[in-house]
Specification:
- The structure is a single chain.
- The protein has 23 helices and 19 strands.
- By secondary structure, the protein is of the alpha/beta class.
- Strand 3 and strand 4 form a beta hairpin.
- Helix 9 packs antiparallel against helix 10, helix 15 packs parallel to helix 17 and helix 17 runs parallel beside helix 19.
- The chain is elongated, with a radius of gyration of 37 Å.
- It binds ligand C2E and magnesium ion (MG) (2 copies).
Length: about 575
């Protein structure tokens, strides 16, 4: 037997009592820069002993740890909980050591990172007694790690991904979707004339601008997409989610309008603009090059602000932007005209009103139907001005028709979502009625189901206000949307216009007849006024009349046309 180690000789010499030994051990344990614990090997790992360092660390007393059985589980960070509980269970079952890092939430809400190292202590017969271990506070290390990561992956000025991280994300995005059908989209953004800002106002202000642009870019991207600063005034966005060219245009347009908003800087607002190159592909390096080339092309047509690498897509983007410019000019130059289509009363057998349908007399393309420009006018907001013109023009025509016929004539005007969402819409209607001196009850506003989609309480209020004025509200193209019936309940609708798709084959298909009858019966039950759209022949006319529909519209009674071009009293077969 070898001699006792020097460190123990003192104990031997002094013969300390067991209490003294315990006291010395406790002092030693309490001096350690960590928490020592002993837990039972029961299902909830109830605590047997915890050293007092736990209190400053987490704000809960030793007593609380011992008495509150679920305290540990409660304090576990939600993202770590399952992992930690599983590890504990594993150790209890296998008696293998416990070694893991996780977060606990301290009493004051702080997040504390801990390293937990535990071993199962066994007696001389190999019987497991308890779990014993220590908790080491590693919060500072973790935070430093996070900071390092932030520095390594993010641009300090904007907080966006830096160039290195961008490349990593792009590679990853491309790997996820490698076939052409699911190409990854990339937007390359370069500020226009940024050098001038730096030269004129100095680099501090230049940095401020970049910081602000970074924030705006971040706001414009969709969840899941990656925005990065590649250096200088160059940014990029990886459209990680599957996208169509239209989606990419949507992001580019949002981005450009965000960046174009004047920035508050010192005394005067500062204006910036950018150019965006868009490319799709399945190879990261090529994608970046192509988006860069497209960006330079975008600089060539600043009125659009963006360009595709793919020349076909680019053509479409240019066409679209040209159409927008033409639409704007067309509105300013009054290139629009209204045609009117008769609405007939099937019982009285006479015209009771008209629907105004807008046409664009395009200087180069000739007459364009609404389907070719209303969607664009909607997207760009130009519909608000155009729609107000339609309202006023139609109301004025209605007054003229009333005088011409010596009896009331209704006027139906189509309204789009953008108009309805405009805060001044009620005012627009009032103005049109005032200036034309038309009785409000002779005006019907036609709203489609898609117009009413995503309507909020303000829209409902607006419609109520309009209805209180005496104006009639109609649901147009009834049956083509998803929730036709719920709209009837939600909005103060008086008239339902049954879509052409229900009447078109009613004379040849029995199934359609049953469907149409169902809709008409329902309309009657809800006491709605019904108009059958798209009546093209006498058979359809007879059927809708027999089914009890009060009014109808369609080529059979008259095509949309301008009143000046025809004799109003001889419209259709009436
Ligand atoms: P809508 O309100 O359902 O108008 C009826 C459309 O059906 C018109 O097409 C009309 O020409 C067409 N139509 C009428 N009778 C028949 C028929 O018997 N057979 C067939 N095949 N078609 C018939 P249009 O003029 O091309 O208008 C299309 C849509 O454009 C309109 O559908 C309306 O939603 C929208 N629209 C028209 N003018 C305006 C407007 O001033 N503002 C807004 N926001 N939308 C408008
Ligand atoms: Mg209509
Ligand atoms: Mg319709």
């Amino acid at each position: 037997m070898s001699a006792a180690p020097v460190a123990f000789r003192e104990y031997d010499e002094d013969h300390p009592s067991p209490d003294e030994v315990a006291r010395r051990y406790r002092t030693l344990i309490e001096q350690l820069p960590l928490v020592v614990y002993v837990d039972a090997l029961d299902s909830i790992s109830s605590n047997i002993f915890t050293s007092c360092q736990i209190e400053p660390l987490l704000g809960y007393s030793v007593e609380e740890w011992k008495t509150e059985a679920d305290l540990f589980t409660r304090l576990l960070h939600p993202e770590d909980r399952d992992r930690v509980l599983e590890a504990h269970e594993h150790t209890q079952k296998t008696h293998e050591p416990l070694s893991l890092e996780y977060r606990l939430i301290a009493r004051d809400g702080r997040v504390v990172w801990l390293r937990d190292e535990g071993v199962v202590v066994v007696d001389e017969h190999g019987q497991a007694l308890h779990l014993q271990g220590y908790l080491l506070d590693i919060t500072r290390e973790r935070e430093a790690e996070l900071q390092l990561r932030q520095l390594a992956l993010y641009d300090p000025l904007t907080g966006l991904a830096n160039r290195a991280f961008f490349h990593e994300r792009l590679r990853h995005a491309v790997q996820l979707r490698h076939d052409d059908e699911h190409a990854t989209g990339l937007l390359y953004i370069d500020l226009d004339d940024f050098k001038a800002i730096n030269d004129r106002w100095g680099h501090d202000l230049g940095d401020e601008v970049l910081h602000e642009v970074g924030k705006r870019i971040e706001r414009s991207v969709r969840p899941g997409d990656t925005a990065a600063r590649l250096g200088g005034d160059e940014f990029a966005i990886i459209l990680t989610e599957p996208v169509t060219p239209e989606d990419a245009v949507g992001v580019a347009e949002r981005l450009l309008s965000e960046i174009a908003r004047p920035m508050e800087s010192g005394s005067a607002p500062l204006n910036t603009s950018a150019s965006v190159g868009i490319a799709f592909g399945s190879h990261d390096e090529t994608l970046l090059k192509e988006a860069d080339i497209a960006m330079y092309r975008a600089k060539g047509h600043p009125d659009v602000g963006y360009a595709f690498f793919d020349s076909q897509l680019d053509r479409a983007a240019l066409d679209r932007s040209q159409r927008i410019a033409e639409l704007r000019d067309g509105i300013a130059r009054n290139e629009f005209r209204l045609d009117y289509q008769a609405v007939v009363d099937l019982d009285q057998h006479q015209i009771i009103g008209y629907e105004a349908l807008v046409r664009w007399e395009h200087p180069a393309a000739g007459e364009l139907p609404p389907g070719e420009f209303i969607p664009l006018a909607e997207e760009t907001g130009l519909i608000v001005g155009l729609g107000e013109w339609v309202l006023t023009e139609a109301c004025t025509e209605a007054t003229r028709l009333c005088q011409l016929h010596g009896r009331p004539m209704h006027m139906c005007v189509n309204v789009s979502a953008r108009q309805l969402h405009h805060q001044d819409f009620v005012h627009h209607v009032e103005r049109a009625l005032d200036s034309s001196a038309l009785m409000p009850s002779l005006l019907t506003l036609e709203l489609t189901e898609s117009t009413l989609l995503a309507s909020d309480e303000r829209v409902v209020q607006r419609l109520r206000a309009i209805k209180e004025m005496g104006v009639v509200l109609a649901l147009d193209d009834f049956g083509t949307g998803y929730a036709s019936l719920s709209y009837l309940r939600q909005f103060p609708i008086d008239v339902v216009k049954i879509d052409r798709s229900f009447t078109a084959h009613v004379d040849t298909k029995d199934g359609d007849l049953v469907l149409l009858k169902g809709i008409i019966d329902l309309g009657h039950a809800l006491q709605l006024n019904l108009v059958a759209e798209g009546i093209e022949n006498s058979e359809q006319h007879t059927i809708v009349r027999k089914l009890g529909c009060q009014q109808a519209q369609g080529f059979y009674f008259g095509r949309p046309s301008h009143p000046a071009q025809r004799d109003l009293d001889s419209v259709g077969p009436l």
